[in-house]
Design goal:
The chain has two helices and two strands, in the order αβαβ. The protein is α+β, with helices and mostly antiparallel strands. It has a domain of 43 residues. The longest helix has 12 residues.
Length: 66
């Protein structure tokens, strides 16, 4: 998990911190709503500029990192 070194404001700043951190792989957990998984995968890979393991759940609160 990437821990930002500065306060994070809502919006794209967190994505920028992750993208510039140099991490090799990031796990993103998001709601499995109406958007297609392939489109979301492209979105996260582009915005975080790294390989993203996308986990889509009906209830994101049920996520456990195993």
């Amino acid at each position: 998990m990437v821990k930002p070194t500065c306060p994070v404001k809502m919006g794209g700043q967190f994505n920028e911190i992750v993208a510039s951190s140099g991490v090799q792989r990031v796990q993103v957990v998001e709601y499995d709503g109406n958007k297609d998984q392939e489109g979301q995968q492209v979105f996260w890979n582009k915005n975080l500029k790294t390989e993203v393991a996308l986990v889509r759940l009906d209830n994101i609160l049920s996520f456990t990192d195993s």
